Amino acid sequence: MRQGQREQDEAAGGRQYRELRLEDGTVVVVSVAARRYARTPDQSYGYLQFKTNGKTVTKYIGRVTAESRAESLRMGWELLRSRKLAESFGWSWISKRGK
């Protein structure tokens, strides 16, 4: 397993919590990206990402500024779930995470 996959699995609470069913029934494994930009170098922004049909889908989650990358990723996963971003696009999680 690659380091990036392990990092995402840990932040999400386990690999099973990263699987998402799209409207057409396709199941994808999603990741959270924590990005910094030159105009706001002290802030990190979270994005949901996955590939389907040869294209990368990216959706903004929110600000995920934390002390470490691992904390920023965990924050991104928490925001993604609490804001029900995936559900707002008609997608559904394969495994439901406890509330």
UniProtKB/TrEMBL annotation:
It comes from the Bacteria. This is Uncharacterized protein.
